[in-house]
Amino acid sequence: MNYAQGMLKEGALKGKTILITGGGTGLGKSMGTYFSELGANLVITSRKLEVLQKTAEEIHAKTGNQVLPLECDVREYEQVEKVIEQSKKQFGQVDVLLNNAAGNFISPTERLSHRAFDTVVDIVLKGSYNFTLALGKSWIEHEHPGNVLSIVTTYAWTGSGYVVPSAAAKAGVLAMTRSLAVEWARYGIRCNAIAPGPFPTKGAWDRLLPGNLKEKFDPANKVPVGRVGEHQELANLAAYLVSDYSAYVNGEVITIDGGEWLKGAGEFNQLDQVPEELWDAMEMSRKGGAKIKMMWLYFRGMLKMKRK
Ligand code: HXC
Ligand code: NAP
Predict the structure, then answer these.
(1) Ligand 1 within 6 A of 222 CB?
(2) Catalytic (active site) residue 129
């Protein structure tokens, strides 16, 4: 058994209809594929119908379960309502919402136009509250239990330069998650979030590591466990949170990043750059060892650190 394998019992999501925004590509597609393997019906939405149709066919061919592809811009409330209506027509009800659609790019903030800022915030925050509100109203009206899972990021609470619209919007999604977890629990609606670290996808890598940045900044270097995430690991966690096994988990955000954000936060964590020779030299100095040997070790250690 390992982290690249499915974790939940066969049929764990049977009978559930799960609506995934941005479900045609990347992590949305990976999570959807696993939900479908576990028996769920899927509704996948985004702006590109052709991409959705291809993904729907692929998933259906693999699992034999139903996948309904529906075009929808999450920023448009009328389109969101229409998707929910069509989903109910096909499956009777939607049981789970996965807020996964996002827009993002890197830029110094002062270079952004106000439209660029709007674009990212509208996709991430408005898109998430549009679907959450429309489905929440329907669940409450029909006394149907609901489950909302939102994909945020770890910079939802640390903030991050160069992706400021995304950071502000993801923080909003997290605040909505925690707020509604309390307010809507009385209606049988749970709200949780996942904060992934780096998981390679074309969408994210093309926009966050454009050009030769991919070679310059290997995201794995920032992760204490020394690697990026495997899609199945995220799919396992998401499947648990959308399943009834997690019925007592509400208002939580679960980080899955190999320890990445804490590495950036800890005051002395960069000392992992210090080579053994330098530690040796410092230890010798502390213990009053031979001066020349100590200086030599210190010099070699500094050289090594410079080269890193
Ligand atoms: C500065 C930019 C820009 C860029 C677009 N704009 N790209 N500004 N730098 N790289 C500006 C445009 O000039 C325009 O402003 C405004 O933003 C809208 O641009 P459009 O291209 O018209 O927008 P649209 O077609 O709606 O496309 C949205 C998009 C695009 C966000 C710009 O990248 C997209 O479709 N993204 C969807 C997928 C995605 O981003 N996936 C990655 C998620 S990764 P003006 O003023 O010129 O009109 C992620 C990971 C987080 O979230 C954590 C990682 C660890
Ligand atoms: P992705 O493949 O680019 O996924 C983004 C999806 O959002 C696309 O399918 C896109 O489809 C859809 N989308 C964008 N704008 C939309 C709109 N206006 N209306 C409807 N759908 C829209 O990137 P990803 O890496 O899988 O990202 C998935 C989620 O994980 C995002 O929430 C992202 O912030 C989060 N995340 C990713 C990472 C990572 O390392 N990959 C890390 C942390 C968090 P269309 O273009 O067809 O609309």
Answers:
(1) no
(2) no
